[in-house]
Protein backbone atom coordinates (compact mmCIF):
# COMPACT_ATOMS: atom_id res chain seq x y z
CA UNK A 1 0.00 0.00 0.00
CA UNK A 2 2.95 2.28 0.38
CA UNK A 3 3.47 2.72 -3.26
CA UNK A 4 1.60 2.18 -6.44
CA UNK A 5 3.99 0.99 -9.02
CA UNK A 6 3.42 1.14 -12.73
CA UNK A 7 5.95 -1.00 -14.45
CA UNK A 8 6.37 -0.51 -18.12
CA UNK A 9 8.63 -2.69 -20.11
CA UNK A 10 11.05 -1.64 -22.75
CA UNK A 11 9.88 -3.00 -26.05
CA UNK A 12 11.69 -4.12 -29.11
CA UNK A 13 15.35 -3.44 -29.48
CA UNK A 14 16.29 -4.19 -25.92
CA UNK A 15 17.45 -0.70 -25.11
CA UNK A 16 15.99 1.34 -22.36
CA UNK A 17 12.91 0.82 -20.32
CA UNK A 18 11.47 2.93 -17.61
CA UNK A 19 9.71 2.55 -14.34
CA UNK A 20 7.27 5.03 -12.96
CA UNK A 21 6.55 5.02 -9.29
CA UNK A 22 3.54 6.86 -8.04
CA UNK A 23 4.39 8.15 -4.65
CA UNK A 24 1.04 9.70 -3.94
CA UNK A 25 0.42 7.30 -1.10
CA UNK A 26 4.01 6.57 -0.37
CA UNK A 27 6.00 7.63 2.62
CA UNK A 28 8.91 8.32 0.34
CA UNK A 29 7.05 11.23 -1.14
CA UNK A 30 9.50 13.68 0.34
CA UNK A 31 12.12 12.26 -1.96
CA UNK A 32 10.20 13.68 -4.88
CA UNK A 33 11.02 17.13 -3.67
CA UNK A 34 14.75 17.47 -3.94
CA UNK A 35 15.82 20.30 -1.67
CA UNK A 36 12.27 21.54 -1.74
CA UNK A 37 13.08 23.46 -4.87
CA UNK A 38 10.32 22.02 -6.98
CA UNK A 39 7.48 21.09 -4.68
CA UNK A 40 4.58 21.04 -7.10
CA UNK A 41 1.69 20.03 -4.93
CA UNK A 42 -1.51 18.47 -6.13
CA UNK A 43 -3.41 21.58 -5.19
CA UNK A 44 -1.19 23.76 -7.31
CA UNK A 45 -1.93 22.56 -10.78
CA UNK A 46 -1.82 25.92 -12.41
CA UNK A 47 -2.23 24.31 -15.81
CA UNK A 48 -5.77 23.23 -14.88
CA UNK A 49 -7.00 26.75 -14.36
CA UNK A 50 -9.55 27.72 -17.00
CA UNK A 51 -7.69 30.87 -17.90
CA UNK A 52 -4.91 28.62 -19.20
CA UNK A 53 -6.79 25.58 -20.46
CA UNK A 54 -8.91 27.70 -22.76
CA UNK A 55 -5.87 28.88 -24.63
CA UNK A 56 -5.06 26.92 -27.79
CA UNK A 57 -3.65 27.78 -31.14
CA UNK A 58 -6.42 25.89 -32.90
CA UNK A 59 -9.94 25.14 -31.77
CA UNK A 60 -11.21 22.50 -34.16
CA UNK A 61 -11.85 18.85 -33.40
CA UNK A 62 -8.44 17.20 -33.21
CA UNK A 63 -10.00 13.80 -33.75
CA UNK A 64 -10.42 14.73 -37.38
CA UNK A 65 -6.69 15.30 -37.57
CA UNK A 66 -5.67 11.92 -36.22
CA UNK A 67 -8.04 9.41 -37.84
CA UNK A 68 -6.41 7.27 -40.48
CA UNK A 69 -7.16 8.81 -43.86
CA UNK A 70 -8.46 6.52 -46.53
CA UNK A 71 -5.83 5.19 -48.90
CA UNK A 72 -3.09 5.78 -46.33
CA UNK A 73 -1.20 2.81 -44.93
CA UNK A 74 -1.55 2.54 -41.15
CA UNK A 75 2.17 2.19 -40.51
CA UNK A 76 2.96 5.12 -42.77
CA UNK A 77 0.45 7.18 -40.83
CA UNK A 78 1.89 6.13 -37.47
CA UNK A 79 5.43 6.79 -38.65
CA UNK A 80 4.62 10.23 -40.00
CA UNK A 81 2.73 11.34 -36.91
CA UNK A 82 5.21 9.86 -34.45
CA UNK A 83 8.10 11.60 -36.15
CA UNK A 84 6.19 14.87 -36.12
CA UNK A 85 5.30 14.58 -32.45
CA UNK A 86 8.91 13.80 -31.60
CA UNK A 87 10.05 16.95 -33.40
CA UNK A 88 7.35 19.16 -31.91
CA UNK A 89 7.77 17.92 -28.34
CA UNK A 90 11.52 18.26 -28.65
CA UNK A 91 11.00 21.82 -29.83
CA UNK A 92 8.51 22.62 -27.07
CA UNK A 93 10.92 21.28 -24.45
CA UNK A 94 13.76 23.31 -25.91
CA UNK A 95 11.87 26.51 -25.15
CA UNK A 96 12.24 25.90 -21.41
CA UNK A 97 15.31 23.66 -21.37
CA UNK A 98 17.43 26.36 -19.79
CA UNK A 99 15.16 26.16 -16.75
CA UNK A 100 15.27 22.37 -16.56
CA UNK A 101 18.60 21.70 -14.93
CA UNK A 102 20.17 19.17 -12.63
CA UNK A 103 19.53 21.61 -9.79
CA UNK A 104 15.92 22.54 -10.49
CA UNK A 105 14.84 19.06 -11.57
CA UNK A 106 16.94 16.50 -9.78
CA UNK A 107 14.52 13.79 -10.82
CA UNK A 108 12.17 13.30 -13.73
CA UNK A 109 8.92 14.10 -12.01
CA UNK A 110 5.33 14.52 -13.09
CA UNK A 111 2.36 14.54 -10.77
CA UNK A 112 4.16 12.89 -7.86
CA UNK A 113 5.54 10.28 -10.18
CA UNK A 114 9.24 9.75 -10.69
CA UNK A 115 10.47 8.17 -13.88
CA UNK A 116 13.65 6.13 -13.75
CA UNK A 117 15.73 4.83 -16.57
CA UNK A 118 16.97 1.32 -16.79
CA UNK A 119 20.15 0.75 -18.64
CA UNK A 120 20.54 -1.87 -21.35
CA UNK A 121 21.20 -4.52 -18.73
CA UNK A 122 18.06 -3.59 -16.84
CA UNK A 123 19.86 -1.73 -14.09
CA UNK A 124 17.88 1.09 -12.54
CA UNK A 125 19.42 4.44 -13.21
CA UNK A 126 18.67 7.55 -11.27
CA UNK A 127 18.99 10.62 -13.39
CA UNK A 128 17.97 14.22 -13.45
CA UNK A 129 15.10 15.42 -15.61
CA UNK A 130 17.36 16.97 -18.26
CA UNK A 131 19.34 13.74 -18.43
CA UNK A 132 16.14 11.76 -18.77
CA UNK A 133 14.83 14.03 -21.51
CA UNK A 134 18.16 13.73 -23.26
CA UNK A 135 17.84 9.94 -23.10
CA UNK A 136 14.34 10.19 -24.53
CA UNK A 137 15.26 12.50 -27.37
CA UNK A 138 18.42 10.63 -28.27
CA UNK A 139 16.57 7.34 -28.37
CA UNK A 140 13.71 8.77 -30.42
CA UNK A 141 16.11 10.41 -32.83
CA UNK A 142 17.94 7.14 -33.26
CA UNK A 143 14.74 5.21 -33.91
CA UNK A 144 12.92 7.59 -36.25
CA UNK A 145 16.00 8.02 -38.42
CA UNK A 146 16.71 4.31 -38.64
CA UNK A 147 15.79 3.27 -42.15
CA UNK A 148 15.21 -0.29 -40.96
CA UNK A 149 12.56 0.87 -38.47
CA UNK A 150 11.08 3.97 -40.08
CA UNK A 151 11.64 3.22 -43.76
CA UNK A 152 11.24 6.12 -46.14
CA UNK A 153 12.18 4.42 -49.38
CA UNK A 154 9.38 3.16 -51.59
CA UNK A 155 8.65 -0.51 -51.20
CA UNK A 156 10.61 -0.95 -48.01
CA UNK A 157 8.70 -2.88 -45.36
CA UNK A 158 8.14 -1.86 -41.78
CA UNK A 159 9.65 -4.31 -39.27
CA UNK A 160 7.48 -6.53 -37.11
CA UNK A 161 8.61 -4.56 -34.09
CA UNK A 162 7.42 -1.28 -35.58
CA UNK A 163 4.25 -0.86 -33.54
CA UNK A 164 5.92 -1.71 -30.24
CA UNK A 165 8.66 0.79 -30.99
CA UNK A 166 6.13 3.48 -31.82
CA UNK A 167 4.45 2.74 -28.49
CA UNK A 168 7.75 3.04 -26.71
CA UNK A 169 8.46 6.41 -28.32
CA UNK A 170 5.00 7.72 -27.50
CA UNK A 171 5.30 6.61 -23.90
CA UNK A 172 8.55 8.48 -23.48
CA UNK A 173 7.22 11.56 -25.23
CA UNK A 174 4.27 11.53 -22.85
CA UNK A 175 6.69 11.65 -19.92
CA UNK A 176 8.28 14.76 -21.38
CA UNK A 177 4.92 16.46 -21.89
CA UNK A 178 3.84 15.57 -18.36
CA UNK A 179 7.07 17.00 -16.98
CA UNK A 180 6.58 20.20 -18.96
CA UNK A 181 3.21 20.73 -17.32
CA UNK A 182 4.25 19.62 -13.90
CA UNK A 183 7.56 21.39 -13.53
CA UNK A 184 7.71 24.08 -16.20
CA UNK A 185 4.26 25.43 -16.78
CA UNK A 186 5.09 28.76 -15.19
CA UNK A 187 8.02 29.27 -17.53
CA UNK A 188 5.87 28.21 -20.46
CA UNK A 189 3.28 30.83 -19.49
CA UNK A 190 6.00 33.44 -19.08
CA UNK A 191 7.03 32.72 -22.66
CA UNK A 192 3.40 32.88 -23.74
CA UNK A 193 3.66 29.38 -25.16
CA UNK A 194 0.90 27.72 -23.15
CA UNK A 195 -1.41 27.72 -26.16
CA UNK A 196 1.13 25.76 -28.16
CA UNK A 197 1.71 23.34 -25.29
CA UNK A 198 -2.03 22.81 -24.78
CA UNK A 199 -2.61 22.22 -28.46
CA UNK A 200 0.36 19.90 -28.80
CA UNK A 201 -0.65 17.93 -25.72
CA UNK A 202 -4.27 17.57 -26.80
CA UNK A 203 -3.28 16.54 -30.33
CA UNK A 204 -0.84 13.99 -28.93
CA UNK A 205 -3.32 12.49 -26.46
CA UNK A 206 -6.07 12.23 -29.06
CA UNK A 207 -3.60 10.54 -31.40
CA UNK A 208 -2.33 7.95 -28.91
CA UNK A 209 -5.88 7.20 -27.81
CA UNK A 210 -7.01 6.69 -31.38
CA UNK A 211 -4.40 3.99 -31.97
CA UNK A 212 -3.97 2.71 -28.38
CA UNK A 213 -0.33 3.65 -28.32
CA UNK A 214 0.09 4.43 -24.63
CA UNK A 215 -1.33 2.40 -21.78
CA UNK A 216 -4.05 4.41 -20.00
CA UNK A 217 -2.39 3.41 -16.72
CA UNK A 218 0.56 5.46 -17.90
CA UNK A 219 -1.39 8.54 -18.93
CA UNK A 220 -3.86 8.52 -16.03
CA UNK A 221 -1.71 10.87 -13.99
CA UNK A 222 -2.69 13.61 -16.43
CA UNK A 223 -6.31 12.57 -16.94
CA UNK A 224 -7.61 15.70 -15.27
CA UNK A 225 -5.93 17.86 -17.90
CA UNK A 226 -6.64 15.46 -20.75
CA UNK A 227 -10.35 15.52 -20.03
CA UNK A 228 -10.39 19.28 -20.26
CA UNK A 229 -8.16 19.70 -23.28
CA UNK A 230 -9.33 16.74 -25.33
CA UNK A 231 -13.01 17.48 -25.13
CA UNK A 232 -13.97 18.76 -28.55
CA UNK A 233 -15.23 22.28 -28.59
CA UNK A 234 -19.01 22.31 -28.98
CA UNK A 235 -20.39 23.77 -32.17
CA UNK A 236 -21.04 27.46 -31.84
CA UNK A 237 -24.41 27.95 -30.25
CA UNK A 238 -26.78 30.50 -31.73
CA UNK A 239 -27.14 32.11 -28.37
CA UNK A 240 -25.06 31.49 -25.26
CA UNK A 241 -26.98 29.79 -22.51
CA UNK A 242 -27.29 32.29 -19.67
CA UNK A 243 -27.34 29.66 -16.97
CA UNK A 244 -26.23 26.07 -17.04
CA UNK A 245 -27.69 24.22 -14.09
CA UNK A 246 -26.71 20.91 -12.55
CA UNK A 247 -23.88 19.57 -14.67
CA UNK A 248 -20.47 21.10 -14.43
CA UNK A 249 -19.78 23.71 -17.05
CA UNK A 250 -17.59 22.50 -19.86
CA UNK A 251 -14.32 24.39 -19.86
CA UNK A 252 -14.07 23.83 -23.57
CA UNK A 253 -17.11 26.00 -24.06
CA UNK A 254 -14.78 28.90 -23.57
CA UNK A 255 -12.31 27.80 -26.18
CA UNK A 256 -11.07 30.34 -28.56
CA UNK A 257 -8.20 30.78 -30.91
CA UNK A 258 -5.22 32.65 -29.64
CA UNK A 259 -3.62 34.50 -32.44
CA UNK A 260 0.08 34.98 -32.50
ZN1 LIG B 1 12.56 20.01 -15.59
TrEMBL record:
It comes from the Eukaryota. The keyword Metal-binding applies. Pfam families: Mob1_phocein (PF03637). SMART domains: Mob1_phocein. Gene3D superfamilies: MOB kinase activator. Zn(2+) binds at residues 100, 105, 179, 184. Keywords: Metal-binding, Zinc. The keyword Zinc applies. Residues 244-253 have a biased composition (Low complexity). Residues 232-243 have a biased composition (Pro residues). Residues 232-260 are annotated as: Disordered. PANTHER family: MPS ONE BINDER KINASE ACTIVATOR-LIKE MOB. This is MOB kinase activator 2a. The gene is MOB2.
